[in-house]
Design goal:
The protein is built from 20 helices and no strands. The chain is mainly α. Helix 1 packs across helix 8 and helix 13 packs antiparallel against helix 20.
Length: about 425
């Protein structure tokens, strides 16, 4: 296997494992709320389950700083080898965790601790793997290479959902409810071991080696990022808002929303979900290719406007509560999301210099995810419950799109001033 193939494989396995875990958590939200919380109000248990999902995101900025320090000072490879191991072990632990009826209040407490550890690991994995991937790309294919990190997210979601559905199909409902849903979580540990093995065979990023040889490696990447690149961090957060909010609404919140609030069957919700993931896996590479051959920022402006125009019709069509309208609504929204997310990894990577790139990229993506993305399912569920309306979904998407559109204009201004890196 060539070095570039190893880079791609290890990056996609690491990111894929993260989203494989999220697919499981999202798919099994109802079961997790049932097994790890006391019996009572189902809405409260569902919000609490989404709340623990969000808590993990609060640790991601800490993970970004910890692994950013290692990655910018000692090398991308070392940080990424540690992060994938720290992701794999907690994923398996969810599958082995005793229920509330077995250990009482310790069940939700331990679930929270597991999500916190995962949050630290993911904080270093996501941004760092993108940096490592993009730093191996050529100028002519940098958006396509960077988009592989997003493609791996979609693949992780797809295979996590498929494995869950397959087990639910072949096992009796009683066995699946008792232990079957745990099997995919334990399987995640072995996926992580494969990724770790590949990463031990990788070479260091050529960009980092060049900086190291030139004596341009930062001795204090965290303080240097916060002092010299804080504007870039805020810019990265703004750019990433139209990724993290719509993406988590579509892939984590929507499957439960379809069943809980729209009264679709689980089978119909799953079918739409898998179709949507398939559409996104097709559209994302197309978007990345267009960004390599055409004006990337112009395309992203158009897509941001599409977000603004379709956010409310997205909800309006869902409110018809028919399979056809729900499918059309989610396919169109998924296409918009796919067109936006594909070039984002490379774009955000380019706004940071090499000496603080791992830290800066990780902080930007993970702060956006912690503040806005991971909290989206809980926030939107709460607003829907309080207002008795589904339109908070669309309004929150419009909020994200407006901020990201402004940030795309800023990136274009920086490009014109030759203030981007890796061009």
């Amino acid at each position: 296997m060539s070095q570039m193939k190893k880079v791609v494989a290890s990056t996609m396995l690491g990111n894929g494992l993260e989203w494989y875990d999220y697919a499981l958590y999202g798919t099994f939200t109802a079961l997790i709320s049932k097994h790890f919380f006391p019996a009572g109000d189902e809405n409260v248990a569902l919000i609490a389950t989404f709340g623990i999902f969000a808590i993990g995101f609060l640790m991601r900025p800490l993970g970004a700083m910890l692994f950013g320090y290692i990655g910018d000072k000692y090398g991308r490879k070392n940080a990424l080898s540690l992060s994938i191991l720290m992701m794999a072990i907690p994923t398996a632990c969810i599958g082995l965790l005793p229920t509330y009826t077995m250990i009482g209040i310790w069940a939700p407490i331990l679930l929270t601790v597991i999500r916190l550890v995962q949050g630290v690991a993911i904080g270093g994995e996501f941004g760092g793997s993108i940096v490592y991937l993009v730093e191996h790309a050529k100028p002519t294919n940098k958006n396509r290479v960077g988009s592989l990190s997003m493609l791996s997210m979609l693949m992780g979601l797809f295979f996590g959902t498929m494995i869950s559905a397959l087990l639910a199909e072949v096992m009796s409902p009683e066995d699946f409810d008792t232990y079957g849903w745990r099997i995919p979580f334990v399987l995640g540990f072995f996926i992580g071991l494969v990724g770790l093995y590949i990463r031990t065979k990788l070479q260091e990023s050529p960009v980092f080696l060049e900086a190291q040889e030139a004596g341009h490696v930062s001795e204090s990447p965290i303080s240097e990022t916060l002092k010299n690149n804080y504007k870039e961090v805020f810019l990265g957060i703004g750019l990433y808002m139209a990724v993290t909010i719509p993406f988590y609404i579509q892939t984590v919140f929507m499957p439960s929303f379809m069943v809980k609030f729209m009264h679709f069957s689980s089978a119909d919700s799953l079918e739409i979900y898998l179709i949507v993931l398939g559409v996104m896996m097709v559209i994302a590479p197309i978007s990345a290719t267009l960004c390599d051959t055409h004006n990337r920022e112009r395309l992203m402006k158009i897509v941001s406007v599409c977000y603004l125009l379709f956010a409310l019709p997205y909800v309006y069509l869902l409110d018809y509560q028919t399979f056809t309208f729900a499918l059309i609504s989610q396919i169109v929204f998924a296409m918009i999301v796919s067109f936006y997310i594909a070039p984002i990894p490379t774009l955000v990577t380019e706004i940071f210099p090499a000496r603080t790139r791992y830290t800066g990229m990780s902080l930007a993506c993970n702060l956006a995810a912690a503040i806005f993305g991971g909290t989206s399912p809980m926030l939107v569920t709460t607003l829907i419950t309080k207002t008795d309306s589904h339109y908070p979904i669309g309004i929150y998407v419009m909020f994200a799109a407006a901020i990201s559109l402004f940030c795309v204009f800023e990136v274009k201004r920086r490009r014109d001033q030759q203030r981007l890196f890796l061009i």
